Each structure stands twice: as C-alpha cells, then as structure tokens.
Amino acid sequence: MDALRLYDPSLQTWPTTRRDRSHKPVFALSGRTRDDGRRELFFVNHSPETLTRVVNASAALLKTDEAIVGTSTMHLSYADVQPGEAVKIDEFDDFYDLDELIIDHVTLDSPSQGRIGFTVAAKGGCNSMVLLWEDGFISPHCSMCRVGNTPDHA
After folding, report:
1. Can you spell out the DSSP letters for 59-127?
2. Which end of the chain has fewer CB atoms surrounding its CB within 10 Å, N or C?
3. What is the pTM of this model?
4. How crowded is residue 73: how many other Cβ atoms within 10 Å of its Cβ?
5. What is the C-alpha separation between 40 and 34, in angstroms, rounded?
6. Distance CA 76, CA 31 (A)
7. Could you read off the pLDDT of 8-17 as tens digits, one per residue?
8. First to last CA, the chain
9. Which domains can be identified in the chain, with CATH numbers?
C-alpha cells in the first residue's frame, strides 16, 4: 500500500452522531471505495493546525479452526499534515478481509495537544467516524491515550 495525501471534499464530511450538531470534529476517519472495489481509510485533520506527524500501524486477527492468527502488515507515516488534509492509513478488501478483525492505531503529534494515540477495531475494517470532537468528546467506538505531557502542561 502506498502513502497518499488528499484534499478531497468527499473526505471532509463526517457522521453526525451527536444530538448537538453544532460541534465539529478535530480528528476523524473517513472511508471511500475505489473503482476496483477496495475500500480505503483516511485520517482527516479537521483541526486548524498542522500536525507534526501522523503514524498508523495496522494489524489483523483471524480465527481459524485451530487458533487465532495475527498479522501486522501496515505502517505509514506522514509529516506536516495540514488542516483539511486527509492521509491514507489503511485499505481493505471486502472479500478477503470480511472475517478479519482489523485494528488501526493512529498516533499523532499536535502542537497544542501533544502526542495522542487512537485505536479503532472492526471486523472487515473500520469505517468513517469522528475520533475527537472540538469539545473534547471522544468517540465511544475508539480508545484514546495521551503520551507524555501536553504542551500546556509540560
């Protein structure tokens, strides 16, 4: 899988899963389907600042008759992710990946928020979702951890 950076308006939309629709996302995942039928997953920077670094690591788990098999196949890194920019973090095959539990872990470095890690998992691959909202609400479909001190508390 090759790295890809886009300013695609279709990736700028986000699911409105909250009752108060005035809140906007800070960071989100957005998916799209390519012409060949494969799905791509992008990390979208909705914040007003440039992220120093965005790194993704992906793994998949598949249950067989004898065991649970794990793989670690993806690792992409991007520097200077601009506001409104989407960076590709994973891709899925709707046939071969359908029964796999795919885990994506995105780590980012933000000038105002420090280093943050998000982990999402879904059978067949993750879909579009807001990870962090502007009011600090974290999606219940992901886990978030801060690594080290934030710049405000350093």
Report:
1. EEEEE-SS-EEEEEEEEEEEEEE-TT-EEEEEEE-TTTTTTSEEEEEEEEEETTTEEEEEEEEEET---
2. C
3. 0.82
4. 11
5. 7
6. 17
7. 777 777 666 6
8. 37
9. 5-153 (2.60.40)
